[in-house]
Amino acid sequence: MTPHQKKRADNNGNEKKVTLKAVASRLGLTPGTISATLNNSPAAKSIPQHTKNRILAAAKELNYRPNFFARTLRTQRTFTIGLIAEEIGDAYGSQVISGIEKYLTEKNYLFLTVVHRHDRKQLQTYLQMLVERGVEGIITVDTDMLDEAILPTVAVAGHRSVAGVTNIVLDHKRAAQLALEHLKNLGHEEIAFLKGQIFSSDSEDRWKAITEVAEELNITIRPELVLRIASAASTPEVGFPVTNELLARKQHFTALFAYNDISAIGAIWALKAAGMCVPEDVSVVGFDDIPVAQFANPALTTVRQPLVRMGEIAAQTLVQQIEGKEEYVPAIAIEPEFVVRDSTTRVAVAKAAASVWGA
């Protein structure tokens, strides 16, 4: 124990809880000055930075822990956010939630998480529960909000225009342009597409963007080379059966643009199981750039969404709206990037694929 820690221990050696007044007494400042600094309240703007530094150092040294309930009663706030997700374990949602958690933790906010798994009734029930528990705002991930927001709300991949909801959205047209221009420049004209599940909030916007860009680039989308993913799995298994179904149609293609990285990796498995080589026979492009994408075999060429950053932006936007530091905006656009790895190459005569397509 340090000398200061010894002073805070009772006769039984148990550490006593350090109060706000104790920190103030130690520094010769008022409790209000200490509170304003530690809570980063508007009043803290008038406190010199060197004084703030002394307060923060003393609070750390004394191991001061603010009383959350006292803070709530004093400010009439809960400092709690409701987080509504389609699911937690999927590669997309976990990255976004990681960004949300990072920002809220830095700002000393709690967040309560609920998972609806595409059940609209459950979604409404959870939303009501979060409101009843005093959350100050809502963040949704891959979830369509149908009703006007009753609290400040930010949606990551919500897409639907709803009064009071700020949408954090990727520029899907730019994303489609990056992917299709890449394939066209490699000489690919016969491109297969895996569309997203009907319940995924990104599906229709992304497909609309792909069709618009394909027309602009004079790329023909053949209906027989388009299939929608049906599985709700959050593993590469999601892309395996739909790619097998695509191969069973015996329609030649030299490239495949998958809805996301998970389905792209499953598609690669299916292609290899059919005796084909990636990228020699079929080039494959994914979407998202989840961490496992670079470790796929081959490493996956993909459209990168800055998922963790999108979560941070969502949390920052919501907190600033709650604290009155930022006005409501209906949407915040995020620019995609394109990452070229080993799953795409120039089009060539497909030898191993010939027997699969019946050539």
Radius of gyration: 26 Å
* Overall average pLDDT: 87
Element string (H = helix, E = strand): HHHHHEHEHEEEHEHEHEHEEHEEH
Query: Number of DSSP strands?
Result: 12
> What is the second-level CATH architecture of the largest domain?
3-Layer(aba) Sandwich
Q: How do the strands of the widest beta sheet line up side by side?
A: 2-1-3-4-5-11
Q: Which structural class fits the helix and strand makeup? A: alpha/beta
Distance between the termini: 79 Å
- Sheet having the most strands: 6 strands, parallel
Secondary structure topology:
Layout: H1 3-7, H2 20-27, H3 31-38, H4 49-61, H5 68-75, E1 80-85, H6 91-106, E2 110-115, H7 120-132, E3 137-141, E4 153-156, E5 165-170, H8 172-185, E6 191-195, H9 203-216, E7 226-228, H10 240-248, E8 255-257, H11 261-273, E9 283-288, E10 301-304, H12 307-322, E11 331-334, E12 337-339, H13 354-357
Parallel strand pairs: 1-2, 1-3, 3-4, 4-5, 5-11, 6-7, 6-8, 8-9, 9-10
Antiparallel strand pairs: 10-12
Helix pairs in contact: 2-3, 2-4, 6-12, 8-9, 10-11
Architecture overview:
- This protein has 359 residues and is α/β, with parallel strands linked by helices.
- It folds into 3 domains: 3-74, 434 Repressor (Amino-terminal Domain) (Orthogonal Bundle); 78-170 and 307-335, Rossmann fold; 172-305 and 339-357, Rossmann fold (3-Layer(aba) Sandwich).
- It has 13 helices and 12 strands.
- It has helices at residues 3-7, 20-27, 31-38, 49-61, 68-75, 91-106, 120-132, 172-185, 203-216, 240-248, 261-273, 307-322, 354-357, and strands at 80-85, 110-115, 137-141, 153-156, 165-170, 191-195, 226-228, 255-257, 283-288, 301-304, 331-334, 337-339.
- The strands form 2 sheets. A 6-stranded parallel beta sheet has the order 2-1-3-4-5-11, with helices on both faces.
- α11 (261-273) links the parallel β8 (255-257) and β9 (283-288).
- The longest helix has 16 residues, at 91-106.
- The radius of gyration is 26 Å and the shape is elongated.
